[in-house]
Task: inverse folding
């Protein structure tokens, strides 16, 4: 018997373990500047602010999302509230990695070996550059994403529109925290997508500044955001009020005050008109025939900042087409990814 035949005799293939097919958990993520939404196994498992409380000296994440602001209220000087994304792209790779690792640790089973890594889809803004895509991909690979597909937010919204069974010719306005995306859809195909540097955080910042100006009181971002959501309105007839607490700028002590919706209405209206003006200019850059056809069908308004009271009516008047507010504006992108 030759050495080769002896080797084949001793090499008993039937004793080898069977190869188990690789199974990766698929996740769908809308990793936004203000909020992160994550769907897996058909369930929305995470929908919280894109923020973390960070201890720089130890590079430790102490809290993320909703718990971050609460944790920071303890007033520890060594802690920072960090925002890893700006304008929909990675602002700090290290913080982005730490944040996503914390999200995965709390919501998913962390893969231990390379062939169990996640596969998934991530929504990205229209204006993302190749360099920004590379930075994003590197961060995601480091936290356990193996197979990864980047999908434009506009394309994800098109998928969502199919679920709503809306027209194949439509104009989409996605009003986010820091940017607004404008997409033109013709016969179900994306014709154009543009980005405007205008987002809902301008409304929140304006409210924060107005409280400081009118009441000599400094309020936190979370308090200003609460006022934005509960009192923000473009209608002068809104008389809703809210009791809040902040820091008295004259005495440095805690201050309790009552604020009304009408205090913010004029400035919020001016900001919204500025948005409408910018949108109208962007519309002039779109193909005329496709735009007219889309405007006849309507304008689909989505995004977390689109829920400002009275904004739908204002944009309908200013843009010359009926504006249809999504029933789920904060979730349309991530649900479109998962569809």
Result:
């Amino acid at each position: 018997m030759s050495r080769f035949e002896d080797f084949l005799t001793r090499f008993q293939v039937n004793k080898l373990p069977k190869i188990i097919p690789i199974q990766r958990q698929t996740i769908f993520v809308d990793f936004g500047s203000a909020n992160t939404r994550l769907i897996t196994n058909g369930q929305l498992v995470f929908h919280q602010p894109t923020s973390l409380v960070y201890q720089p000296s130890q590079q430790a994440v102490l809290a993320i999302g909703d718990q971050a602001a609460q944790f920071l209220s303890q007033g520890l000087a060594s802690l920072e509230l960090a925002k890893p994304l700006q304008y929909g792209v990675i602002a700090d790779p290290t913080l982005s990695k730490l944040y996503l690792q914390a999200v995965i640790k709390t919501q998913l089973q962390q893969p231990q070996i390379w062939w169990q890594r996640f596969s998934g889809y991530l929504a990205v803004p229209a204006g993302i550059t190749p360099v920004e895509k590379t930075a994003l991909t590197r961060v995601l690979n480091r936290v356990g994403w193996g197979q990864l597909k980047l999908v434009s937010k506009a394309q994800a919204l098109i998928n969502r529109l199919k679920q709503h069974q809306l027209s194949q010719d439509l104009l989409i306005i996605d009003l986010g925290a820091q940017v607004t995306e404008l997409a033109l859809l013709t016969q179900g195909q994306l014709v154009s997508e543009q980005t405007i540097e205008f987002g809902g955080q301008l409304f929140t910042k304006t409210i924060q500044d107005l409280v400081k100006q009118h009441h000599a009181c400094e309020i936190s971002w979370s308090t200003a955001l609460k006022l934005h959501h509960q009192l923000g309105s473009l209608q002068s007839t809104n008389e809703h009020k809210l009791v809040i607490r902040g820091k008295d700028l004259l005495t440095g002590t805690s201050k309790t005050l009552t604020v009304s919706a009408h205090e913010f209405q004029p400035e919020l209206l001016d900001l919204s008109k500025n948005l409408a003006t910018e949108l109208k200019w962007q519309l002039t850059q779109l193909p005329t025939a496709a735009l007219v056809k889309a405007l006849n069908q309507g304008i689909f308004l989505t995004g977390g900042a689109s829920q400002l009271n009275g904004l739908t009516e204002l944009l309908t008047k200013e843009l010359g087409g009926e504006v249809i507010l999504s029933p789920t504006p904060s979730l349309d992108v991530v649900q479109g990814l998962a569809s």
Q: What stands out?
A: The chain has two domains: 26-153, 166-333. Residues 152 and 289 are 24 Å apart (CA to CA). The chain has a mean pLDDT of 85. The longest strand covers residues 145-152.
